[in-house]
Amino acid sequence: MTVRYARWDGPGVPFALVEADGPADLADGELLVEIELATICGSDLHTVAGHRPAPAPTVLGHEQVGRVVAGGPGERVVWSVAVSCGECERCARGLTQKCLRLRKFGHEPLAVGWTLSGGFATHAVLPRGTTVVPVPEDLPAEVAAPASCATATVAAMLDAVPPVAGRRVLITGAGMLGVTASAMAASAGAEVTVCDPDPARRALATRFGAASAVGPDELPAGVDVALELSGAARAVSGCLDALAVGGHAVLAGSVSPGPSVPLDPERLVRGLLSVTGVHNYRAEHLRRAVDFLAVAYERYPFAELVGERFGLAGLDQAFAPAASSTALRRAVVPVATR
Questions:
Q1: Among 324, 332, 319, CA closest to 42
Q2: Number of domain units in the chain
Q3: Which residue stretches of the chain have pLDDT < 70?
Q4: 289 found inside a domain
Q5: Are 222 and 74 members of one domain?
Q6: Which structural domain range is residue 200 located in?
Q7: Where is the Alcohol dehydrogenase-like N-terminal domain (predicted)?
Q8: What is the pLDDT of residue 323?
Q9: By the 8 A CB rule, do 188 and 212 touch?
């Protein structure tokens, strides 16, 4: 078998298309998956632009859907961004997403010998410890692929707070995660307000269940849950300030170094406030993500969030700045020639 992958050699260097022999043998518990479609996550964009540290050379991409072609039944599947050992002290505590031996799809150097470790390739090898979830055959590929990062992360955020039915929920940031969070929270019975500085993204959020969409100067007060997905220091402060007594803030957007945010400990104590960070996710969150998308994609326009499609040879163009568009992701189709 011949496989192809796009090698990333660092910021400012064009992607290199590599053709190689596929794995002759799989280790016990490994799967070989043929990738149907991958999506370009915001963290991929930041990595290529040099705004986020990453090993090089590597194979990027960690949102994808494919079909098992060796090592197991030929199911259509998505898989977790994180690979956990299941044996270390953190895994024993249920913190599998922070395993002491953690490996991550789209983040590993080629030097470790796990070549097919990213989504921008025709195939991927899924080691033991990867969460693999079957995907319905009728679920569009562009809807299924983001489950591995965006949708599962939102599921983890909502798992970190009490049930949101009947609650007032504020979401800051209306990118892929933000509009997904709006749809998931609204579907669970919450009254959702989404905040974003971009009017087009605010309008998009209303199509994903938001009862209202506001700018940064219009944040509501007295919300029960605040989900921060932009990573902006002002948004983090806004989420904390907006909480009602007994409120919960969940931060997931701050994944790069940035300015510190003031915290009033007296308000935290007297207000019975909770602040939680979410990074990566556990196996059950990916399963919930797929279950949600399998039902919600006909209610909310998730397919419209993925725009242009590119082949592996067109990755440099795929990472070029996009013209104004409501699409929040671009797609990579490994078998395409473009």
A1: 319
A2: 2
A3: 323-325, 336-338
A4: yes
A5: no
A6: 161-277
A7: 28-137
A8: 60
A9: no
